[in-house]
């Protein structure tokens, strides 16, 4: 089964960026862990990160055309702003699991709204980077 992990803006700076909120592990190191986890779960994994909304949308369309069945998606700040990303998710048959490293509901009120959650299968928020592993495990059972 082919699945993807898609990360939005500023997540390339994990490990450097506000480590108290997002942890000290770098994006590159997380990618290595995700590949290992996917292998253990018997999943084939594609990874992508971008700071650009259009590039994320293009990747969603491309993955859908390439037969990706499920996507672990952290839209980062675009969660709270992007109708275009929400429409991109709704334009495919892929299963999306929305993941946030921090608990967005304990933070500023502008983070309490997610445009993408209503078109996702479920949302994991506040479990740190363990949320990605939990989402991969869920997808492997689908
Ligand atoms: C985030 C939460 C968002 O509010 C924020 O803009 C991010 C990261 C998280 O993983 O906790 O960039 O999606």
From TrEMBL:
<feature type="binding site">
    <location>
        <position position="87"/>
    </location>
    <ligand>
        <name>substrate</name>
    </ligand>
</feature>
<comment type="similarity">
    <text>Belongs to the type-II 3-dehydroquinase family.</text>
</comment>
<keyword id="KW-0028">Amino-acid biosynthesis</keyword>
<dbReference type="GO" id="GO:0008652">
    <property type="term" value="P:amino acid biosynthetic process"/>
</dbReference>
<feature type="binding site">
    <location>
        <position position="74"/>
    </location>
    <ligand>
        <name>substrate</name>
    </ligand>
</feature>
<dbReference type="GO" id="GO:0003855">
    <property type="term" value="F:3-dehydroquinate dehydratase activity"/>
</dbReference>
<protein>
    <recommendedName>
        <fullName>3-dehydroquinate dehydratase</fullName>
        <ecNumber>4.2.1.10</ecNumber>
    </recommendedName>
</protein>
<dbReference type="GO" id="GO:0019631">
    <property type="term" value="P:quinate catabolic process"/>
</dbReference>
<feature type="binding site">
    <location>
        <position position="111"/>
    </location>
    <ligand>
        <name>substrate</name>
    </ligand>
</feature>
<keyword id="KW-0057">Aromatic amino acid biosynthesis</keyword>
<dbReference type="GO" id="GO:0009423">
    <property type="term" value="P:chorismate biosynthetic process"/>
</dbReference>
<comment type="pathway">
    <text>Metabolic intermediate biosynthesis; chorismate biosynthesis; chorismate from D-erythrose 4-phosphate and phosphoenolpyruvate: step 3/7.</text>
</comment>
<feature type="binding site">
    <location>
        <position position="80"/>
    </location>
    <ligand>
        <name>substrate</name>
    </ligand>
</feature>
<keyword id="KW-0456">Lyase</keyword>
<comment type="function">
    <text>Catalyzes a trans-dehydration via an enolate intermediate.</text>
</comment>
<dbReference type="InterPro" id="IPR001874">
    <property type="entry name" value="DHquinase_II"/>
</dbReference>
<comment type="subunit">
    <text>Homododecamer.</text>
</comment>
<feature type="active site" description="Proton donor">
    <location>
        <position position="100"/>
    </location>
</feature>
<feature type="binding site">
    <location>
        <begin position="101"/>
        <end position="102"/>
    </location>
    <ligand>
        <name>substrate</name>
    </ligand>
</feature>
<dbReference type="Pfam" id="PF01220">
    <property type="entry name" value="DHquinase_II"/>
</dbReference>
<dbReference type="InterPro" id="IPR036441">
    <property type="entry name" value="DHquinase_II_sf"/>
</dbReference>
<feature type="site" description="Transition state stabilizer">
    <location>
        <position position="17"/>
    </location>
</feature>
<dbReference type="GO" id="GO:0009073">
    <property type="term" value="P:aromatic amino acid family biosynthetic process"/>
</dbReference>
<feature type="active site" description="Proton acceptor">
    <location>
        <position position="22"/>
    </location>
</feature>
<dbReference type="InterPro" id="IPR018509">
    <property type="entry name" value="DHquinase_II_CS"/>
</dbReference>
């Amino acid at each position: 089964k082919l699945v993807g992990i898609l990360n939005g803006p500023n997540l390339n700076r994990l490990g450097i960026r506000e480590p108290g909120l997002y942890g000290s592990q770098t994006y590159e190191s997380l990618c290595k862990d995700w590949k290992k986890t996917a292998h253990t779960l018997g999943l084939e994994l594609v990874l992508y990160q971008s700071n650009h909304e259009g590039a994320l949308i293009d990747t969603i369309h491309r993955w859908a055309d390439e037969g990706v069945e499920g996507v672990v998606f952290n839209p980062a700040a675009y969660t709270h702003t992007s109708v275009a990303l929400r429409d991109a998710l709704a334009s495919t048959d892929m299963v999306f699991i929305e993941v946030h490293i921090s608990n967005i509901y304990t933070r500023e009120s502008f983070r309490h709204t997610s445009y993408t959650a209503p078109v996702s299968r479920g949302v994991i928020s506040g479990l740190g980077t363990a949320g990605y592993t939990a989402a991969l495990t869920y997808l492997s059972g689908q």
